[in-house]
Description:
Elements: E1 2-8, H1 11-22, E2 27-35, E3 41-49, H2 58-81, H3 85-88, H4 91-102, H5 107-116, H6 121-135, E4 149-153, H7 160-173, E5 178-183, E6 186-187, H8 188-201, E7 204-208, H9 211-220, E8 226-230, H10 239-249, E9 256-262, H11 267-277, E10 282-288, H12 297-306, E11 310-314, E12 323-325, H13 328-331
Parallel strand pairs: 4-8, 4-9, 5-7, 5-8, 9-10, 10-11
Antiparallel strand pairs: 1-3, 2-3, 2-6, 11-12
Helix pairs in contact: 4-5, 7-8, 11-12
Amino acid sequence: MLTRRYQARDIQTALDLVKKDLGPDAIIFSINKVNDSNFLETTEVVAGKDYPSEKIDEASSLIKLKEDLEFIKSIFIQFLSNCEENIKTNKDLFNIYSRFVAYGIDESWISKFIKKIEYKKKALISTILSHLKDSIKVIDLCSQKHSKIWAFIGPTGVGKTTTIAKLATRFALEGKKLAVAAAGSFRIGTIEQLKGYTDIIGMSFECVSKPEFLKKFIENHKNKDFILIDTPGGNPNDLIYLNQLKEILMAHPSIEKHLVLSATTKEKDLSRIYSQFTIFPIKSYVFTKIDETQEYSGIFNQLIKTHIPVSWIGIGQRVPQDIEKASKAKIA
Length: 332
């Protein structure tokens, strides 16, 4: 990786220099105030750029293809293996079971639930839908009993930065005082996006690269109504990335971790991402891109299996209106 330092009179000028030199995919490692050779305060940005290999790992592609084919092959076997015997032998029950499985509801859950309750076809369907709704948990993070220092974690591309921009603008319009931090190494576009919104609504913004800097930022803004912390996206299978993220978020005990996931993500991948991010105590889910799919079974199954509540749902790209507090009515 190529790494360089840039100094300018302000953050925007320094970011412009980075973009001109390294391009729009530059990674920002830190932004600090320093004194130049004339002892005048300037902004120093440390940035770098990856030059990835263009080689295609054909072996990995073949392995992935084989795994996908094996998964498809096992679907029918799994479908029947999770089905209770009394359901297999009852046409009406099997039709109901198949209907919910076709919607994507977890086979073992629906099979066990049908077995537990008395069979009446119409009542059964209504009861299952009601029980699904009751199984979902939601949480209001704006209530006084919850911490107001929120870190948004999750893989690349799920909308963490956009979620923060929506919440920051929404809270500012409500008259709340808040501060925003970017904790870690970010692409230059992310820094410019956050800085653009925070400048418009007149709130504090800093890019912090180390735990001690984040701790100082939180202490400096402890009287704010909200402190929102953006984190860099990464591969959830990359343990180095996860441990670096964990290290910086251990800076303060009051930081709540909220896992941001896209509603368009496949159920198998949702489970895998959640599993990797369990190195953090996850306070809630934030589901984004709800408007981009009509298939919500992966979300339902994730909520049923993990018992973690949903706090916010993203329903579009508009800032700030396309984010809503989660409710059972909206999710179910």
